[in-house]
Amino acid sequence: MESFFSFLEKRVDDCTSLLCVGLDPHLDDLPEPTAAAALTFSLNLVKQTAPYAAAFKPNAAFFEQFGAEGWDALKQVIAAIAAESARMGSMIPVILDAKRGDIASTAEAYARSAFETLGAHCVTLNPYLGKDSIDPFIVEREKGVFLLCKTSNPGAADLQDLTVDDGRLTTDHNPLSVVNGPRSLYEHVASLAQQWNTKNNIGLVVGATQPEALMRIRLAAPGLWFLAPGVGAQGGDLDAALKAGLRRDGKGILFPVSRGISRAASPAKAAAELRDEILGLQYMLRR
Amino acid sequence: MESFFSFLEKRVDDCTSLLCVGLDPHLDDLPEPTAAAALTFSLNLVKQTAPYAAAFKPNAAFFEQFGAEGWDALKQVIAAIAAESARMGSMIPVILDAKRGDIASTAEAYARSAFETLGAHCVTLNPYLGKDSIDPFIVEREKGVFLLCKTSNPGAADLQDLTVDDGRLTTDHNPLSVVNGPRSLYEHVASLAQQWNTKNNIGLVVGATQPEALMRIRLAAPGLWFLAPGVGAQGGDLDAALKAGLRRDGKGILFPVSRGISRAASPAKAAAELRDEILGLQYMLRR
Predict the structure, then answer these.
(1) pLDDT at A247 over 90
(2) Is the Cβ–Cβ distance between A208 and A178 less than 8 Å?
(3) Residue A76 needs a FRET pair 20 to 30 A away by CA distance; which of A190, B107, B178, B190 works?
(4) A107-144: per-residue pLDDT in tens?
(5) How far is it, in rounded angstroms, from Cα B74 to Cα B18?
(6) By CA distance, what is A133's nearest residue in B?
(7) DSSP class of residue A92?
(8) What is the pLDDT of residue A174?
């Protein structure tokens, strides 16, 4: 049975892309504030961008805001991605951006919701409640999670950037590390995630806008995949992010882009260009 | 316009109760795994326990697991609480236990989902993303939030118990404090929440099973309401929790109980007894 990240890597190879297409039906982008409009918006994006998408990332909030009908639309969007994948002969992973986080039977219910009811392959989670809040989502190795690690909003300073004393003697897993001394909470989370990743199905959410943080997290978690938002609308520098965060195998970062694609005159063209831009920069880095 | 916590306190006075009735339709407790069964289960609990409930706390996960139909059931449950409140002539606050946490327009969409689409008055949130992830939920003072602070699961040690260096000179807001020296992440969260609570609509989720942590959090956040799960099924000691966590005004803790009530032969009787037990202990503490 393959793991979530071997599944993702197969798709990355199939489409030579590190682009993750975000499906965020903002009210501002819909002709009317209805679940039906959110569905049309998302299905159009799926159809236009599937050839260039290493993954799709529907954002639960923008469906949930429409209640039961929104939930139904979300399920249809995920089914449409599976159908489009089958048509192309290459399965595209669906990362449900839900940022859930709870314990015990509640976490099990959220896992059931994401993987069984909706049919997603992966879900974003919040790490604040610790390992046992993650466990129900990683039982099966073919289902994956991305844990929030370092976000790019101002509030990241409130908790994530705090210096923590985690009783650690060595600084990280990399003997060549240049990162010494006190460690931030987000580096601690990265290190925990690396330890917990025994089934190749845990990744990290790391803002692409801060190359230094990306580099520190790569040192703390040398093997993990990152989901790195902030390229495009938020002004993240793709080249700097790739240099700081790519793994030695030239993989390891997915760049989710939503409005940078959905608001383009041609989403297909915007996605193709982003895919090619990333590919070009990867090529330059390998030289 | 009243604040969320003045609304809650009015209800606490009306029913002389610090009991919060959890609505958690676990699959194990339903005759069949359907949204209709979850709805029946929840409506029965609302009807039986409303006279003793300072608040109701439906858990989003146990509805979400049923997809669109579950979402619809959740909305009906919240509407039934409003109807029961109107019948009794005393509005019962609804705390949606959703533990959401996201930023910017996504957080706005979650707030819209909880407060507008569903009609809840309050929502549980995860603080990992910081202040700007909370803001969209506290814009209106009559809507409230409880931020996860210190949970009672083993994984709480992974992040919440870490010692942090938050550059603080004084230890907390209480000049009589006995808590000195390094501070944990959960105490830092409590202190931030106290600072952020300028509209009387921010509380904290604090496990009732650890009286020392409750005491430390009360010192860091002397004015806030706590939502303190763990009494009943998880074996929390009500007396110790009240001693450690009550505010000087004899209020300040809501005790959510789910299975301890729903699995009783008579949920009405179980809720009445719990309400009275808390009331008796409060009375003893005041003497």
Answers:
(1) yes
(2) no
(3) B107
(4) 999 999 999 999 999 999 999 999 999 999 999 999 99
(5) 23
(6) B155
(7) P
(8) 54
Q: B163 and A160 in contact by Cβ < 8 A?
A: no
Q: State residue A245 phi and psi, 5-degree precision.
A: -115, -15
Residue B67, min C-alpha distance to chain A (Å) = 6
3-state secondary structure of A12: helix
ipTM of this predicted structure: 0.95
State how far residue A280 is from chain B, nearest Cα, in angstroms: 31
Residue of B nearest to A101 (CA): B99
pLDDT at B180: 56
B284 vs A282: CA distance, rounded Å: 69
**Which residues lie closer than 8 Å to A135 by C-beta, 6 or more apart?**
A107
Cα separation, B223 vs B131, in Å, equals 19
The single-letter DSSP state of residue A66 is T
Please report, rounded to a whole number, the percentage of residues in chain A having pLDDT higher than 90: 89
Query: Distance between CA atoms of A121 and A208, rounded to whole angstroms?
Result: 23
Q: Taking a C-beta distance cutoff of 8 angstroms, is the pair A144, A134 a contact?
A: no
Q: How many domains does chain B have?
A: 1
- Taking residue B249's Cβ as centre, other Cβ atoms within 10 Å add up to 8
- Catalytic residue positions of A? 99
Amino acid letter, residue A222 = P
How distant is the Cα of B202 from the closest Cα of chain A, in angstroms?
16
Q: Which residue of A has its CA nearest to B34?
A: A117
Report which of A212, A192, A194, A204 is spatially closest to residue A228, judged by C-alpha positions: A204
* Residues in A touching B27 (Cβ below 8 Å): 109
Q: What is the per-residue pLDDT across A43-75, written as a single tens digit (0 to 9) for each? A: 999 999 999 999 999 999 999 999 999 999 999
Q: How far is residue B89's CA from residue B43's CA, in Å, rounded to a whole number? A: 19
10-residue mean pLDDT profile of chain B (287 residues): values are 94 98 98 98 98 98 98 98 98 98 98 98 98 98 98 97 79 50 92 98 96 97 97 78 94 97 97 96 88
Tokens representing residue B45 in the block: 């609990």
Q: Return the CATH number at A56.
A: 3.20.20.70
pLDDT-based confidence at residue A188 (cuts at 50, 70, 90):
very high
- Residue A91 contacts residue A7 (beta carbons within 8 Å): yes
Q: Which domain does A196 fall in, by range? A: 4-286
